[in-house]
């Protein structure tokens, strides 16, 4: 019968415990030697959400890569696992491709991002003195309101500043549905829309426009949101409804990176905090990663429970 000195038995026991714990930690993290590839699609708010998730995943023990993708091809990458996750996507921007891919069970919706989103018609708050009855949409039909918003290019109609043409024409359809005396004028770009809003606020020039939140322009400009008319038809073309932002992952994500999966299910983004970061990046020209790191460094009580969810 083999005998070991007492110190050696204790050492072997300790080694076994350490090995067992290392195995448990490894299993919890999963394939942490392989990078989690997070999709970056088209707009700064989404980039902020993605880098927030990425920096926190690194704290959890993972490698992260950021992959630039457009809204529709990103679902092909998610389906085959070449893209691991998409942590901020507005479902009103994905057309038919999202439900089609979701039905194949190659991707998984892991819940809302918690982002307070909004989309609709806005106006500078001073216009409530010019168009009594705002924010109710019926105020827009009053002659004094139409006249205030009329321009040489739209007279006798009022001017409605719409999204760029390639973003769709819902507002023009809704204006027609409700016989509102306005002409939809597409903006040249997002930047042009922000410039008009800034100029209208500075010069107290009446303005009615399509817009969305979160957006940095709303940090610097006080706006009202029109209470929209009832939808003539329950379709995207005839309605403006509150967008939902969700988190989507490749279907194999949970098995491959269990702790990351648990973390991302808990991960949330506050719209007002996102707007402040967008302002710093887009308006003040600051570096995305630096701005996000500052938020992470200052808000551990917010994100620590998400990290703990990944560890437990």
UniProtKB/TrEMBL annotation:
This is Glycine/betaine ABC transporter substrate-binding protein. Residues 35-297 form the ABC-type glycine betaine transport system substrate-binding domain. It holds the Pfam family OpuAC. The keyword Signal applies. Residues 1-22 form the signal peptide. It comes from the Bacteria. One of its GO terms (molecular function) is transmembrane transporter activity. InterPro entries: ABC_Gly_betaine_transp_sub-bd (IPR007210). One of its GO terms (cellular component) is ATP-binding cassette (ABC) transporter complex. The keyword Coiled coil does not apply. Keywords: Signal. It comes from Rhizobium loti.
């Amino acid at each position: 019968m083999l005998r070991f000195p007492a110190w050696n038995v204790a050492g072997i026991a300790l080694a076994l415990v350490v090995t067992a714990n290392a195995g448990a930690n490894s299993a919890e993290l999963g394939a942490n030697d392989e990078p989690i590839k997070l999709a970056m699609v088209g707009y700064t708010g989404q980039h902020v959400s993605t880098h927030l998730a990425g920096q926190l995943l690194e704290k959890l023990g993972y490698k992260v890569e950021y992959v630039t993708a457009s809204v529709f091809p990103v679902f092909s990458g998610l389906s085959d696992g070449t893209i691991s996750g998409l942590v901020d996507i507005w479902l009103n921007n994905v057309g038919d491709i999202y439900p089609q891919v979701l039905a194949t069970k190659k991707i998984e919706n892991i819940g809302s991002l918690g982002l307070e989103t909004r989309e609709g018609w806005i106006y500078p708050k001073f216009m409530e003195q010019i168009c009594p009855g705002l924010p109710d949409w019926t105020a827009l039909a009053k002659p004094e309101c139409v006249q205030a918003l009329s321009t040489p290019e739209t007279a006798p109609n009022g001017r409605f500043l719409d999204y760029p043409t390639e973003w769709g024409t819902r507002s023009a359809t809704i204006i027609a549905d409700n016989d509102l005396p306005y002409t939809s004028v597409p903006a040249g770009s997002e930047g042009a829309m922000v410039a008009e809003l800034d100029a209208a606020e500075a010069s107290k020039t009446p303005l009615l426009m399509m817009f969305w939140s979160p957006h940095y322009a709303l940090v610097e400009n006080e706006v009202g949101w029109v209470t929209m008319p009832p939808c003539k038809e329950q379709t995207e073309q005839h309605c403006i409804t509150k967008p939902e932002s969700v988190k989507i992952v490749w279907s194999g994500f949970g098995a491959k990176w269990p702790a990351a999966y648990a973390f991302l299910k808990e991960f949330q983004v506050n719209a007002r905090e996102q707007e402040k970061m967008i302002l710093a990046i887009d308006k003040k020209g600051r570096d995305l990663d630096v701005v996000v790191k500052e938020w992470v460094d200052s808000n551990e009580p917010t994100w620590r429970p998400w990290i703990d969810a990944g560890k437990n």
